[in-house]
Amino acid sequence: MKLNVIREGIFSAVAFLIVILFPSIVLAGEIFGSVKAHNKLNRVEINCDAETYRGDIDQYGAYKVLASKTGKCKIRFQYGNNWTNSFTIRSYKKASRYDFKVDGDNNLRRE
């Protein structure tokens, strides 16, 4: 009985330290999805307040970015040296999926 109480206390202390020392692990939310375009897209960029998060796009148009900020953000995609126009999204503590299609004017539309 006493050993279980000690284990629970140690586990609680370690969990508390992780939350205090690494809050981005606890508050991070994954933003993922797919994007279709006529050009080959190679990068995704998400701006939340003053924080910028970047990720790659695979050969099928799938992307995944871990954002530690929550709230309103802007997403855009890079093709060559150019960028699409940005689109407003929301970042949450839990994973969020956003699928897009790029039109002829480089605007993003939700799919």
What is the 3D shape? globular
SSE string, helix = H, strand = E? HHEEEEEEEEEE
Helix content: 10-25%
Look at the structure and name the CATH superfamily: Carboxypeptidase-like, regulatory domain
| The CATH architecture | Sandwich
State the low-pLDDT regions, or none: none
Average pLDDT taken over every residue: 83
Number of helices: 2
Radius of gyration: 19 Å
Provide the β-strand percentage band.
Answer: over 45%
Please indicate the count of domains: 1
Look at the helices and sheets and give the structural class. Answer: alpha+beta
Using the coordinates shown, work out and report the CATH topology: Immunoglobulin-like
Structure notes:
The chain is of the alpha+beta class and 111 residues long. The protein has a single domain, classed as Carboxypeptidase-like, regulatory domain (Immunoglobulin-like, Sandwich), CATH 2.60.40.1120. Helices cover 23% and strands 45% of the residues. It contains 2 helices and 10 strands, in the order H-H-E-E-E-E-E-E-E-E-E-E. Strands 1, 4, 8, 9 and 10 form a 5-stranded mixed β-sheet that branches.
